């Protein structure tokens, strides 16, 4: 069995053990606790700002007016929010249902079956079944288990780590990855045009068809006896270019918008899309990578399927594109490889956690 599973029990086994109070490693720092509330109550709220829903039906319309309107709305959401619900995205609902069924079927397996796919974070083998290790300075843990693997391009996959059960897992996940990859191209094209660039520019800058990696993380958030004390995933921005998220229609995602935590509604047949740090850097923050987190609850298991579209770690230097930089708007980010950007974030987070009275 891998190192990760020997340090602490899986969150699923903690949840099903009947504990009434959660281990202290899962309790958030005091200053965070004040903002954690009941996710079902939060989702019902109708006042205040709401995550925008963007209808992509017209994204490639023959009608220029329809096409421009659709593209303008997507660009506006990327600039003002950095997150949106995509509807009429072109990926069939029945395929999405099959992806969700397959992922749920894997997590429905007994823990000892899932452990056969355990990753070994200590040796750098991050693909497979895992739980977060307390590797940050605050020693905090998150109320989730996960399954992580690279799903596209096909020639970069390691099929040995893919679940064998259910039997259609590979087929449906592969088909979903192909369709999602073409959706990423469409979105990147629109975002390029929104910056006054050639249509293919952002796609090229993040690695193109050969090098842009799609990494899937299935997040499994078990029921939590004290949801007001824990987080499924702590506040962070994604390092990716774009992130696409499916979920099982249980609320949990919150976005930090204009100084407040806003709860994303559960929009049927939608895919949630985040702008990640990579596109924020290339656009010199014209597009926003929004801070977000995941809440948990007592009543329902939440599952989400996040696909991170990431540039290659070393081959590309990420920096604001020359065309979006002016004297009045100088570059907000220094040149870094994707690997260096990740290191920089981890370093900053560690420094932050070491400051007296600061949350990790």
From TrEMBL:
GO terms for molecular function: dioxygenase activity; L-ascorbic acid binding; metal ion binding. Its cofactor is L-ascorbate. InterPro entries: DIOX_N, IPNS-like_FE2OG_OXY, IPNS-like_sf, Oxoglu/Fe-dep_dioxygenase_dom, Plant_2OG-oxidoreductases. The keyword Oxidoreductase applies. It comes from Salix koriyanagi. Signal peptide: none annotated. It holds the Pfam family DIOX_N. One of its GO terms (biological process) is flavonoid biosynthetic process. Keywords: Dioxygenase, Flavonoid biosynthesis, Iron, Metal-binding, Oxidoreductase, Vitamin C. This is 2-OXOGLUTARATE (2OG) AND FE(II)-DEPENDENT OXYGENASE SUPERFAMILY PROTEIN-RELATED. Belongs to the iron/ascorbate-dependent oxidoreductase family. Residues 212-311 form the Fe2OG dioxygenase domain.
């Amino acid at each position: 069995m891998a190192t990760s599973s020997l340090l602490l029990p899986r969150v699923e086994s903690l949840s099903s053990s009947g504990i009434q109070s959660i281990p202290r490693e899962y309790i958030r720092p005091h200053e965070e606790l004040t903002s954690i509330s009941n996710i079902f109550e939060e989702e019902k709220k109708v006042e205040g700002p709401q995550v925008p829903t963007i209808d992509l039906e017209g994204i490639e319309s023959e009608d220029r007016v329809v096409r421009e309107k659709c593209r303008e709305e997507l660009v506006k959401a990327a600039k003002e929010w950095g997150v949106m619900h995509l509807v009429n995205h072109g990926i069939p609902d029945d395929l999405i249902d099959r992806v969700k069924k397959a992922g749920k079927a894997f997590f429905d397996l007994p823990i000892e079956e899932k452990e056969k796919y355990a990753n070994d974070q200590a040796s750098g083998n991050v693909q497979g079944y895992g739980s977060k290790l307390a590797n940050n300075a605050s020693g905090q843990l998150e109320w989730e288990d996960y399954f992580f693997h690279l799903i596209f391009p096909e020639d970069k996959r390691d099929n040995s780590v893919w679940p064998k059960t259910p039997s259609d897992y590979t087929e449906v996940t592969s088909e979903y990855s192909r369709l999602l990859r073409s959706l990423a191209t469409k979105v990147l094209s629109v975002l390029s045009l929104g910056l006054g660039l050639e249509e293919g520019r952002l796609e090229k800058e993040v690695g193109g068809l050969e090098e842009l990696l799609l990494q899937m993380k299935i997040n499994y958030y078990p029921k939590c006896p004290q949801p007001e004390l824990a987080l499924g995933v702590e506040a962070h921005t994604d390092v990716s270019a774009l992130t696409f998220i499916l979920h099982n229609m249980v609320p949990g995602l919150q976005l930090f918008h204009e100084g407040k935590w806003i709860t994303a509604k559960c929009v049927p047949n939608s895919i949630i899309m985040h702008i990640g740090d990579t596109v924020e850097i290339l656009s010199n923050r014209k597009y926003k990578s929004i801070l977000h987190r995941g809440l948990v609850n007592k009543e329902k298991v939440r599952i989400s399927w996040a696909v991170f579209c990431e540039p290659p770690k070393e081959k590309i230097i990420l920096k604001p594109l020359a065309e979006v930089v002016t004297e009045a708007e100088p570059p907000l980010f220094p040149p870094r490889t994707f690997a260096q950007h990740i290191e920089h974030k981890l370093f900053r987070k560690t420094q932050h956690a070491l400051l007296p009275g600061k949350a990790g």
